[in-house]
Amino acid sequence: MRMNIVVHETPDELAYAVAAEISGQIAASDGRFTLGLAGGSSPEPTYRRLREADVPWEQVDAWLSDERWVPPDHPRSNGRMASETLLAHVGARFHRPPWGEMFRPDDSAAHYEAKIRSIHPDGAPDLIILGLGDDGHTASLFPGTKAMAEKNRWIVANHVPEHDESRLTATYPLLWRARAIVFVVTGEGKAGAVKKSLQGETPAGRVDQGDGRVKWHLDDAAASQLS
Ligand code: 6PG
User: What is the pLDDT of residue 101?
Assistant: First the structure.
């Protein structure tokens, strides 16, 4: 996978540039376009910018590269964040993992994987946005957790001890099929994880072992430990 790095002075400039890049890819697509969305807080400014884009949103299938195992309207839900900042404002289809008292995380992961496979008849996500944790995790691929070793499934439930919670996450087999991956990383607190990731020493650092292109969008603070 080819990799490049773009450094922006501020998080707002990063959000503007990434939104322009993504809307350009959606506008250039001649059919369905699949967009995997990161959770957490870093992508929020980009999602808010994206909702102003004049693109054929009705051609877009949006999905989540990971989700915490919480009710869909919970304040910690990535799906709720993605909906509030972007998807409730545009005409894209938004595919979220099923949640309910009768579901266990493993059941939901199996259902969600079937849905994600159904929106990728050619098996290749067009674009996945990912974030980076200060421990170098991405999606919910945390260092030392079981999902790191998954070789076949595209979506699995993963127990994350430091958060004492289950999460659903895209696996490397799915991430490595993406045509394009865009990391959105801002803030001084991520600078060490960025440096280690670009040296291939973190879960995020293994994302570039697929066939597509990986682009790291960093602000000055997150890039501050790079020579
Ligand atoms: C999540 C995310 C996760 C996130 C990083 C960074 O569910 O938390 O998907 O991988 O991208 O933890 O989070 P922040 O952007 O909030 O720093």
Answer: 85
- CA dist., res. 106 & res. 162, Å (int): 19
SS3 63: strand
Nearest CA to ligand 1 atom 12: 133
Pocket around ligand 1 at a 6 A CB cut-off:
38-42, 66, 68, 78, 131-133, 137-140
Nearest to 62 by CA among 39, 43, 87, 44: 87
Can you tell me the distance from the alpha carbon of 52 to that of 120, in angstroms, rounded to the nearest whole number? 26
Output the pTM of the full model.
0.97
160: which 2 tokens? Answer: 């994350």
Residue 100: Cβ within 10 Å count = 9
Distance 139 CA to ligand 1 centre (A): 7
Digit-coded pLDDT (tens) for 75-95: 999 999 999 999 999 999 999
Atom of ligand 1 nearest to the CA of 78: 7
CA of 30 to the centre of ligand 1 (A): 31
Per-residue pLDDT reduced to its tens digit, 37-52 = 999 999 999 999 999 9
Q: Residue by residue, what is the 3-state secondary structure of 109-149? A: HHHHHHHHHHCCCCCCCCEEEECCCCCCCECCECCCCHHHH
pLDDT at 1 over 70: no
